[in-house]
Amino acid sequence: MRYFPAEFEPQSFVQLIFPHPQSDWAPYLEEARQCFVNIATAIARYQPCLIVCDDVELVKSYFKKQENLIFIAYQSDDTWARDCSALSVIDEEEDEALLLDFTFTGWGGKFDASRDNAMSRAISNVYGAPMKKIDLILEGGGVETNGAGSLLTTAECLLNPNRNPHLTKAQTEAILKKEFGVEQILWLNHGYLAGDDTDSHIDTLARFIDTDTIMYVKCDDKEDEHYDALKKMESELQTLRDREGEPFNLIALPMCNPTFYDGERLPATYANFLIINDAVLLPVYNDPHDSKAIAICEKAFRGRDIIPIDCSVLIRQHGSLHCVTMQFPEEVSLRVE
Q1: What is the reported pTM?
Q2: CB of 16 within 8 A of CB of 82?
Q3: Per-residue pLDDT tens for 138-197?
Q4: What is the largest CA-CA distance in the chain?
Q5: pLDDT per residue over 33-63, tens digit each?
Q6: How far, in Å, CA of 213 to CA of 300, rounded?
Q7: Phi and psi based region of residue 60 (left: phi greater than 0; alpha: psi -120 to 50; beta: remaining)
Q8: What is the dihedral of CA 28, 31, 32, 34, to 10 degrees?
Q9: Which domains, from first to last, does the chain contain?
């Protein structure tokens, strides 16, 4: 029987991909790199951080301290580790981890992603777990697990014709249950963020913070374009039930004020946080709602440090903090030479 560990469970390390000149970060490369340095440095205070990069020696020079930082060379297309990295499941009978390498197509063919799709296999020798190729287009940001048999996702993403058009909803559910070992799929049919390239990844909208609790984005401004969709999403969340038929505890996060770059609204969201061992890295955006989001997380994540990280530059490329990271559970060792 397989088990899909939740993000809030003990971890071995976090992986990220460092920006390089051939990526879309080129117009503001140094600004983006500093944000990634801040993220990696924060992670390294608590656990190892594996940094995939095009030039190991150059990237090392960005860090004052390299304790808990591991560097591996690979030429990627971009830096969205959440969506092109392998996902970890545990074989409970063998008590061993298995890495699931799904197909990444640049969010339904929007961008070239051939090198990103090949990354996990190319660097597989660094992972202390076997890897299995899965014939399904799926990104890590598109699924959330509570570690207790439930998987939360959005219909807009996983049932989008640009992902797996040959599969019905029932067939998709069957594959998800088989590969992740979950017992129920919880679908959200509403909720989106303007400027999002992912077709409504769940990790921008609603997140499990423990087995019984979902933290989600709420919009109170009736004039905001997101109000109706997020209100409907909130109603859907209220109707969801766990495997025992119990409703989930719901904690609302504020919606950021409209943020623009080059005339385009950006998908700034506090839901794109990263849970690590003993801490939560929370994206902030120099927004008046930052302090409220921090306070909510400090109350909700008892026993974990809340570390705000300015991710204003990340959202220019339509993602945020969780999108550029991937955690691996404690059962996946990191092979360091």
Answers
A1: 0.97
A2: no
A3: 999 999 999 999 999 999 999 999 999 999 999 999 999 999 999 999 999 999 999 999
A4: 55
A5: 999 999 999 999 999 999 999 999 999 999 9
A6: 10
A7: alpha
A8: 160
A9: 2-334 (3.75.10.10)
